[in-house]
């Protein structure tokens, strides 16, 4: 991560933040209400379960088909876009991506950037980096704008300000936007936001956006939104910079048809969003608006690590709908900020270890009951629970154990004591004599079991061996062991 | 090694090379899914039926939408624009539909052409234009979507910056769903620099999941569906629709 420090990310404090979130009744009410709302909205879009399951099969097939030939598709996308006059950049790390964007800004002598919603730019903390170098970034998605005013990070990938009440937002607007009175009227608040940002669209030197899907066959960037800020950001300024994770490309434009339907219905319960904005090049001669210069930054930032492993590659099928977090009992109770990562919730728990390393995120895969809800709603059938278990395994593996595709931070949760216990246990199980000796001792000495058993007894009664083992009981009934 | 080469090398080292599903099989699965859905729905796909489905979907998305005949719509729309207090209306006088509308406009509504690059009049565009008029390339009935292909005469911002966007769509250009539109219009054969699918006025639910309109784009969307226009060239090659 070289010289650029990430300002917010401290997922290492996950447990403390989760505790604090659980103790905050207002926050829990906010998330419970919002998640119930989003679950209900999604359900109304899928009244026919057979259709949903077919569509999920298609979504999974499209994404797997694309990932199977990812390097070739990226090259084809690059060729098509370059032919259309788009500048394509490749970034291995967050720092590289930030430097590329800053380079573009400096070449254009740009001071003001207007941003449409982009989780990739959140991931690399672009706003901070550009601000440090004298370039102002203004978030224009209403939720992102609110979160930026508050000096926070998004708490949800689709609805960034979902943790804020209208009262919170009324106070923020009153404090930060000149000439604004306190009101909890949502229409009025939105009109205030619109007014505050109107000039910013017209004055910006650069518009920055994310990308929802990219089609390699036509060289098209497919952007999905409701507000129109994405269209304004990618249309009005003279330069448009799009940032996209390398996994988002698919082979054909027509493959996006089922994906876009799955995305909007799963994310916000809409049959379609207000705008699908399909961009295939900068302004051509004779056209009177649109950016004269268009750049695409292709971001790796750990994605190739997930790609290297056949099982973990499924992580990259994600289309960022947020349905997994909307249905997660853990996310619903602790909210998005507790995770400390750009992507919270189940998808955050399986993608963040690749972006930040398991050493920074080892606790995240354990923050799950493995209830399976995330995997059940995932529109592209990512086996999230299985991936969580796999990441737990990698976090507990001996740091120097040689494996085919080692993850950054392998063994972050490894302790010698735990390792010894498991070795002892597997040894005892593998040798009948040793096991019988252990059983005999454990049942006789059960009175010596400690009453305090660290984390276990915090919320549970102590574990204690039974007075008689199962095989003793069976023998007493006359059944062989 | 450049970042590009390094990323591609890492991917190549792991890529299976052969996709589990072949391209042709995947395409066929997608086509079959949508063909089956359309035939199960059992509705006819004539312009009249599609126009009604389009109207219903757009109304549900908070747009004002009405059907009108080719003769009647210019006067109807002109009257509504005047009634709504529109004074400056952005339109492309070179288009037949826009010219017909311009002829019907009362003196209170001035037609304004987008005849300069945006940079030459950005402030005016943002501050003085009340409405933008576009003619859709086509429409998608299932979701109530107008398909816009901005060009030199009707640039991208016409449907975006003014607080009212008025789109005209010919019923003969309506497709049942997005899948049908993509095939019938042969999107794979080449895309314009920008293609925009509009399915309602600008909106947001970012404040406590409360729906509000007019976030950053037009607060209001009017759609005129012209019902009796003869088949136009834009109605495209329907034989390309997978059967």
From TrEMBL, chain A:
It comes from the Bacteria. This is Iron-sulfur cluster-binding protein. It comes from Burkholderia cepacia (Pseudomonas cepacia). The keyword Repeat applies. Residues 308-337 form the 4Fe-4S ferredoxin-type domain. NCBIfam families: LutB/LldF family L-lactate oxidation iron-sulfur protein. Residues 457-481 are annotated as: Disordered. Coiled coil: none annotated.
């Amino acid at each position: 991560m070289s010289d650029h420090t990430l300002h917010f990310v401290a997922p290492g404090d996950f447990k403390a933040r989760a505790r604090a979130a659980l103790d905050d009744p207002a926050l829990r009410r906010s998330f419970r209400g919002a998640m119930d709302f989003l679950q209900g909205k999604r359900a109304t879009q899928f009244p026919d379960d057979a259709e949903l399951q077919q569509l999920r099969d298609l979504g999974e097939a499209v994404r797997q088909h694309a990932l199977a030939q990812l390097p070739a598709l990226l090259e084809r996308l690059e060729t098509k876009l370059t032919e259309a006059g788009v500048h394509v950049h490749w970034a291995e790390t967050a720092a590289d991506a930030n430097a590329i964007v800053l380079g573009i800004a400096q070449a254009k002598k740009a001071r003001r950037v207007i941003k449409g919603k982009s989780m990739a730019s959140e991931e690399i903390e672009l706003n901070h980096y550009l601000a440090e170098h004298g370039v102002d970034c203004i978030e224009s998605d209403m939720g992102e704008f609110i979160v930026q005013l508050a000096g926070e990070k998004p708490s949800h990938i689709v609805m960034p300000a979902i943790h804020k009440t209208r009262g919170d937002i009324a106070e923020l607007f009153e404090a930060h936007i000149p000439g604004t009175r306190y009101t909890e009227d949502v229409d009025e608040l939105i009109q205030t936001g619109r007014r505050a940002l109107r000039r910013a669209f017209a004055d910006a030197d650069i518009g920055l956006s994310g990308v929802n899907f990219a089609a390699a066959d036509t060289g098209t960037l497919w952007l999905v939104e409701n507000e129109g800020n994405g269209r304004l950001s990618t249309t009005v300024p003279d330069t448009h910079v799009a940032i996209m994770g390398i996994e988002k490309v698919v082979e054909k434009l027509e493959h996006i048809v089922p994906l876009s339907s799955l995305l909007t219905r799963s994310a916000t319960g809409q049959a379609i969003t207000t705008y699908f904005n399909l961009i295939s090049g900068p302004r051509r001669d004779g056209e009177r608006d649109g950016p004269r210069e268009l750049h695409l930054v292709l971001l790796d930032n750990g994605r190739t690590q997930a790609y290297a492993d056949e099982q973990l590659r499924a992580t990259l099928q994600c289309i960022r709908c947020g349905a997994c977090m909307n249905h997660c009992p853990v996310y619903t109770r602790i909210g998005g900020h507790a995770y400390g990562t750009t992507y919270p919730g189940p998808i955050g728990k399986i993608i963040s270890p690749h972006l930040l390393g398991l050493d920074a995120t080892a606790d995240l895969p354990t923050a799950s009951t493995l209830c399976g809800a995330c995997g059940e709603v995932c529109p592209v059938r990512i086996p999230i629970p299985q991936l969580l278990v796999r990441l737990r395994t990698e976090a507990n593996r001996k740091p120097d154990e040689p494996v085919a595709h080692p993850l950054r931070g392998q063994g972050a949760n490894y302790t010698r004591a735990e390792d010894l216990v498991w070795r002892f246990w597997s040894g005892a199980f593998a040798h009948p004599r040793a096991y019988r000796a252990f059983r005999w001792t454990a049942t006789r000495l059960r009175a010596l079991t400690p009453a305090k058993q660290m984390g276990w007894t915090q919320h549970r009664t102590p574990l204690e061996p039974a007075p008689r083992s199962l095989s003793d009981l069976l023998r007493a009934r006359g059944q062989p062991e | 090694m450049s970042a590009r080469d390094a990323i591609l090398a890492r991917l190549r080292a792991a890529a299976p090379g052969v996709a589990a599903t072949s391209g042709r099989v995947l395409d066929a699965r997608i086509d079959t899914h949508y063909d089956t859905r359309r035939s199960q729905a059992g509705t006819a796909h004539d312009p009249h039926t599609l126009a009604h489905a389009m109207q219903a979907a757009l109304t549900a998305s908070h747009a004002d939408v009405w059907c009108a005949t080719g003769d009647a719509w210019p006067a109807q729309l002109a009257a509504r624009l005047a009634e709504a207090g529109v004074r400056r209306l952005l339109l492309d006088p070179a288009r037949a539909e826009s010219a017909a509308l311009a002829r019907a406009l009362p003196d209170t509504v001035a037609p304004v052409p987008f005849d300069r690059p945006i940079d030459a009049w950005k402030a005016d565009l943002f501050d003085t234009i009340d409405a933008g008029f576009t003619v859709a390339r086509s429409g998608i009935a299932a979701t109530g979507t107008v398909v816009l292909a901005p060009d030199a005469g009707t640039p991208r911002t016409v449907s975006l910056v003014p607080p009212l966007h008025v789109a005209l769509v010919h019923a003969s250009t309506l497709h049942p769903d997005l899948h049908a539109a993509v095939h019938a219009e042969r999107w794979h054969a080449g895309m314009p620099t920008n293609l925009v699918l509009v399915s309602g006025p600008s909106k947001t639910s970012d404040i406590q999941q409360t729906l509000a309109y007019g976030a950053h784009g037009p607060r209001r969307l009017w759609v005129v569906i012209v019902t009796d226009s003869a088949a136009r060239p834009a109605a495209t090659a329907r034989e390309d629709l997978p059967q």
